[in-house]
Design brief:
Elements (H helix, E strand, L loop, with lengths): L25 H14 L2 H11 L7 E2 H4 L7 H13 L3 E6 L2 E6 L3 H9 L10
Antiparallel strand pairs: 1-3, 2-3
């Protein structure tokens, strides 16, 4: 696996603006489109869920991910690579195995982007 610098979505001062706060500029829209494209595949969405379900700071070995799918190991590795390139996960090789984890805060920032502000309280 190559160690490449990944830009994590939503870092910086503009990260807190949600979808409804203001129209996206071209650069931010392209950045987020990569993330949503990565999440648009059922296999990648399941992989991310399996990794994220380990909790914050948790990691999972690729040897635990591969048996959950009726796909070859190279195909699973390709899907994991796309999740890494989208800035959602990272990994580390330890001997013959690779361990994956969700980048800290990335899912919260993505959820925050999709959340619309609550301006009216529902009356009971």
């Amino acid at each position: 696996m190559s160690k490449q610098e990944l830009e994590v979505i939503g870092q910086g001062t503009a990260c807190c603006q949600g979808l409804a706060a203001a129209p996206l500029d071209e650069e931010r829209a392209a950045e987020l489109a990569k993330v949503f494209k990565a999440l648009g595949d059922p296999v990648r969405l399941r992989l991310l869920s399996m990794i994220a379900s380990r909790g914050e700071g948790g990691e999972v070995c690729v040897c635990e991910l591969t048996p959950a799918f009726d796909l070859s190991q190279p195909t699973i590795s390709h899907h994991l690579k796309l999740l890494r390139q989208a800035g959602l996960i990272d990994c580390e090789r330890r001997g013959t195995w690779v361990y994956y984890w969700v980048l800290p805060g990335v899912l919260d920032r993505l959820a925050g982007f999709l959340t619309t502000p609550q301006t009216h309280q529902a009356s009971v």
